[in-house]
Amino acid sequence: MLNSKKFITLILTTSFALTACGGGSNDNKAGTPATGNSGGNPAMVWVQGQFTPYLELAGQCSANQTGTTLIEKLWMRSWSNDTYLWYDEIIDRDPAPYSVSEYFDLLITNELSDSGNAKDVFHFSMPTDEWEQLNQSGASVGYGFNFQLINRDQNIERNVTVTYNEPGTPAATANIDRGAVIVEIDGVSVQNANDSTSIDILNAGLFPSETGKQTVFTIRDLGATADRDVTLTAQTIVSTPVQNIKTLQTTDGTVGYLQFNAHIATAERGLFDAFTTLSQAGVDDLILDVRYNGGGLLAMASQLSYMIAGETATANRTFESTRFNDKYPTKDPVTHETLTPMPFIDETLGFNSGLLAAGSALPTLDLERVYVLTTAGTCSASESIMNSLRGVDIEVIQIGGTTCGKPYGFYPTPNCDTTYFTIQFQGINDKGFGDYSDGLFPSSSPTLASEIPGCMLDDDLFHALGDTDERLLSAALYYRTNARCPATVASMAKVAATSEFIDDGYILKDPRNQTVIKNNRIITDIKGAL
């Protein structure tokens, strides 16, 4: 049987001082694999409590016979012991009985947060070539639709509902739009599947691993009374992270709206163009829709925050400071540089130089407040935007659901064709706040530091994103005019898309158990580094 596993949203962050994805340097400081082999080195054995420096073990891989799987495991053990935020909470086990991936899964704290939840739910790995493709171009294998997945418990039926599609993809061509329910996958009922074989078919359809895979989806479109069958062929999907840039005319000014889905390299061009358009339109307020944004490049979050707040509000202020483990109170353990706060970045960085070169001044809106639309899929770098703007007294109004709760980050670190993600630091805003591991949540009468003025609302899958009748956008516009939530506020859904339910022992998940933004964008949150 498949074990239950929490779905979380991905966030990647990297430093404005580094190229994307924590790339290496000639001295291998960022953990780029070195070459060599064990050569019978007696250090290449496990001794409890003794750790060979991980740089001495890097790049010694079983696949190309430059090393062994034991050395690969010893590398990740030493790397974790040196850089993991809670390194002293890892049980030091003999790696021999475990595969490389199994051993990595054990190099994590088992402690709980103050609220009783698992302290670390953001620990994962993925093939390096997939990570590089995803981060640099937003490309992954799929059909082009993002979906909300709810696994069942005794009170809730299993459900897969499309939240949006990517332009120009098989899903968009087939008119599989927001609100469409996936009823069957290759003849297997989503709602009623109750054995491992059926669940495997559902997972294989929702999470294709190779281009060319054909899957038959039975779709019930929003408002339809009959189902239809659609055959989709998986392909490499290039996401459009910045969509739906609009100006909304109201009786008391012009409001900008922006759907922002991922902090990946290609988004820099989209954000630059979007804010240029909104700035030229002279918007009086901004509604930033990050309800499905699991995060991305932390430096991009800093750029976005600067474009919202402008030069005066951010001058000589900190976007985010970072705290590493107690071995490194003043130094970054990966770059080995002295810790300095990340500023609000006021220029382009050229994450994807083919789209936008570095060094251009960013457009700004110079706003004193921003409305942010959120769900449990709003994670990491997206949360940093909210937290860091509040740190410089920009008013943040939160409309929607509680965010995922990831004030942490990491450097994606490659070794032996796999890139590993383990929490290495905590982010703190200009006022010294970064304790929101249970999420940032809207409240009509906030009292806690993690509570933000706003309205707690369900996601609305019955209207298009950017439609002024869509529940979250409508509530933001109402709040802007009336300084309060609408009189009729829907309660939060019984289950968020990222919640964990036992599902009678069978739960839909990526069969590779990878926490990575794929075409569905519901799997995990990664937050990069300084």
Characterization of the model:
The chain has 530 residues and is an alpha+beta fold. Among the domains are: 139-238, Roll (Pdz3 Domain), CATH 2.30.42; 242-482, 2-enoyl-CoA Hydratase, Chain A, domain 1 (Alpha-Beta Complex). The chain contains ten helices and 22 strands. The protein has helices spanning 69-83, 100-106, 128-137, 170-173, 196-206, 267-280, 298-309, 311-314, 381-391, 471-482; strands spanning 124-127, 139-142, 145-150, 159-165, 181-185, 188-189, 214-220, 228-233, 235-238, 242-250, 253-260, 285-289, 318-323, 342-343, 369-374, 395-400, 408-409, 413-415, 418-421, 425-428, 441-443, 451-456. A hairpin with a 2-residue loop joins strand 10 (242-250) and strand 11. It is globular. 49% of the residues are buried.
Give the structure's gist in a few sentences.
The chain is α+β, with helices and mostly antiparallel strands.
Strand order of the largest sheet: 10-11-12-15-16-22-21
Level-2 CATH architecture of the domain at 242-482: Alpha-Beta Complex
Assign a percent range to the helix content: 10-25%
Question: At the first level of CATH, what is the class of the domain at 242-482?
Answer: Alpha Beta
Q: How does the overall form come out from the CA principal axes?
A: globular
Low-pLDDT runs:
1-40, 490-530
Number of helices: 10
CATH overall fold name of the domain at 242-482 = 2-enoyl-CoA Hydratase, Chain A, domain 1
**Terminus-to-terminus distance:** 40 Å
> Mean pLDDT, as a whole number?
84
Number of E-type strands: 22
Biggest sheet: strands, sense, closure?
7 strands, mixed
Computed CA radius of gyration, to the nearest angstrom: 23 Å
Class from helix and strand fractions = alpha+beta
CATH superfamily of the domain at 242-482: 2-enoyl-CoA Hydratase, Chain A, domain 1
Strand content: 15-25%
